[in-house]
């Protein structure tokens, strides 16, 4: 048997830890959330209608150059990751009272409405695909092939 059975004290002292924070973190986070998403501005989580696919690789956080539409080299098929991000972004917009672009017929779930909009090719978002050289391609959801 163990020598110190029943001596467990819970691991914490009764003294309070003061880190100098008065609990304003929630208020700051709410302000950041309000500033980051405004459905009236155009839609995306960053205030535009662009949904990023991948990470930019440019130096110093600079965005690369845009590849013209006629010189695109990536596949025209929507990936499952892009689909998830598009549906999530659009469902968030719908839940924040953005206008619905299809007949909802009694639907109340924002994700179901977003799926219906995707099926009808009515989602007003752009997928930005970053390339290894730092440039990017913009594809509208209507241009991408999905099922």
UniProtKB/TrEMBL annotation:
Query: What is one process in the GO biological process aspect for this record?
Result: transcription elongation by RNA polymerase I
* Renumbered residue ranges of the record's region Disordered: 1-77
* Keyword line: DNA-directed RNA polymerase, Nucleus, Phosphoprotein, Transcription
Enumerate the PROSITE patterns for this protein: RNA_POL_K_14KD (PS01111)
Q: What is its subcellular localisation?
A: Nucleus
Q: Which PANTHER family match?
A: DNA-DIRECTED RNA POLYMERASE SUBUNIT K, DNA-DIRECTED RNA POLYMERASES I, II, AND III SUBUNIT RPABC2
Q: What is this protein called?
A: DNA-directed RNA polymerases I, II, and III subunit RPABC2
Source organism per entry reads Tilletiaria anomala (strain ATCC 24038 / CBS 436.72 / UBC 951)
């Amino acid at each position: 048997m163990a020598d110190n059975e029943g001596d467990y004290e819970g691991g914490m002292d009764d003294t309070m830890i003061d880190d100098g924070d008065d609990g304003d973190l929630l208020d700051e986070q709410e302000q950041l959330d309000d500033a980051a998403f405004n459905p009236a501005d155009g839609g995306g989580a960053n205030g535009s209608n662009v949904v990023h696919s991948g990470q930019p690789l440019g130096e110093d956080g600079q965005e690369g150059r845009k590849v013209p539409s006629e010189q695109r080299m990536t596949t025209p098929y929507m990936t499952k990751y892009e689909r998830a991000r598009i549906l999530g972004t659009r469902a968030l917009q719908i839940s924040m009272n953005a206008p619905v672009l299809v007949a909802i017929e009694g639907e109340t779930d924002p994700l179901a409405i977003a799926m219906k909009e995707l099926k009808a090719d009515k989602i007003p978002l752009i997928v930005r695909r970053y390339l290894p050289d730092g440039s990017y391609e913009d594809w509208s959801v209507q241009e991408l092939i999905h099922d």
